[in-house]
Amino acid sequence: MRKMYVGFLCLLCILLVSGCNIKFGKPHISAGPVCDWNNLGIKRCMGEFLQVCGQDMTSNTTTWIASQYCPDLGRVCRDGACKDYCTDPATGINYTTGTTGCYNATAFAVCGNRTITFTDCTKQGKVCADNNCTQGCVYNNVAYISGTNWCDGNIALNCTGTLLIEDCTETGRVCYDNECRQIADVCQDSDSDLYSNVGSGSCCGETKDQQCSEGVDCNDWNSGINPGIVEICGDGIDNDCDGETDEGCTQ
After folding, report:
1. Backbone φ and ψ of 170, nearest 5°
2. Cα separation of 62 and 33, whole Å?
3. 17 with 70: CB under 8 angstroms?
4. What span, in angstroms and rounded, lies between the C-alpha atoms of 211 and 88?
5. Who wins on pLDDT, 98 or 209?
6. DSSP 5
7. Overall pTM > 0.85
8. How many Å apart are CA 209 and CA 212, to the nearest integer?
9. For residues 96 and 83, is the Cβ–Cβ distance under 8 A?
């Protein structure tokens, strides 16, 4: 009789948890081992409910049993435990106490004592990257560490503590491999249709030293597909490499 009573209580707990999950939407489930005989006693989060892997005395199987509703303790359920937290006032997202990281490209954030504190990295002449205030540059609201160089289309950027920006097209070049390069040096034309698949605008012409105004070859293994081709209706192929298929065609 006692075993049946315990089993009934376990089943009731499971039903209560399931009902709350439906009420509060899709639950957050902590990653972790499955509930089996080898993992009795392990805990996980189901929404804000802390669950423990236990034994169902009625069916003699393992199952997740409700252990604690973390908000009753003024906490959130994360990583198999009820933890203190901070709430981001801008997004409403909760972060557990001790969480640190970059709030944006210039602000370092720490969750402690129920409050998120911010450090303005720019006051140190730095940016926030790799979860710390460090030497670097900000471009398009993204922080880059000093020593980083990259291409943004045909714009070559180099972060040396200050941000150096070079428009490669002003010197008739393209940005390739994170720097401005002569078009002929980076031209790849595998199908010999005089259109390349490298660079923004890429190279074309018999000497491959001109920049194609039409665009980039979207299939450099098929000479019948490039920005200079007229779209062929009904073949289901983007013949002119404009990102659309059979555009301008009538049924």
Report:
1. -65, -20
2. 13
3. no
4. 48
5. 98
6. H
7. no
8. 10
9. yes
Q: Name, in order, each residue with C-beta under 8 angstroms of 55's C-beta and a sequence gap of 6 or more.
A: 40, 61, 62, 63
Nearest alpha-carbon partner for 153 in 178, 189, 172, 171: 178
Q: What is the pLDDT of residue 127?
A: 96
Q: What is the DSSP letter of 148?
A: -
Determine the Cα–Cα distance for residues 41 and 55; give it in Å rounded to an integer.
Answer: 9
Q: Is the CB of residue 202 less than 8 Å from the CB of residue 194? A: no
Give per-residue pLDDT as tens, 34-87.
Answer: 899 999 999 999 999 999 999 988 888 999 998 899 999 999 999 899 999 999
Domains of the chain by residue range: 2-80, 86-132
Residue tagged 């901070």 (tokens): 86
Those residues with Cβ within 8 angstroms of residue 38's Cβ, 6 or more apart along the chain or in another chain: none
CA 6 to chain centre: 45
Q: What is the pLDDT of residues 12-32, one digit of tens each?
A: 333 333 332 222 223 445 556
Task: Say if CB 184 and CB 203 are below 8 A apart.
Answer: yes
CA distance 241 to 9: 65
